[in-house]
From TrEMBL:
Plays an important role in the elongation step of protein synthesis. This is 60S acidic ribosomal protein P2. InterPro entries: Ribosomal_P1/P2 (IPR027534), Ribosomal_P2 (IPR044076). The keyword Ribosomal protein applies. It comes from Carya illinoinensis (Pecan). GO terms for biological process: cytoplasmic translational elongation.
Length: 114
């Protein structure tokens, strides 16, 4: 994600064709490590493509996945209400894991919003 974010930041900054070095500079400016393989993969995937079209396509896919998931849940509910109710109800151990994660985030002593 950080490689994609750095690529998009370069585009927003006016660089119409960010290079691997541009992405490394952006990541280095915030102390993040740059993974050369991920950078090269991203650059090969977006080479010659319009980023706005890529983002629009991604949004369409996400919207489809969200609506498809709702269809599966609705179908399950009509075919077996007990199964759907059991699947929708979070288990106690799942709730404890979420609470543990929330507590561990506070131990980091910083926030991205500070």
């Amino acid at each position: 994600m950080k490689v994609i974010a750095a690529y998009l930041l370069a585009l927003l900054g006016g660089n119409t064709n960010p290079s691997a070095e541009d992405i490394k500079n952006i990541l280095g400016s915030v102390g993040a490590e740059a993974d050369d393989d991920k950078i090269e993969l991203l650059l090969s995937l977006v080479k010659g493509k319009d980023i706005t079209k890529l983002i629009a396509t991604g949004r369409e896919k996400l919207a489809f996945m969200s609506s498809a998931h709702g269809f599966v849940v609705a179908t399950t509910a009509t075919n077996g209400g007990a199964v759907a109710a059991a699947a929708a109800e979070p288990k106690q151990d799942q709730l404890e894991k979420v609470e543990e994660k929330e507590e561990s985030d506070e131990d980091m002593c910083f926030s991205i919003f500070d």
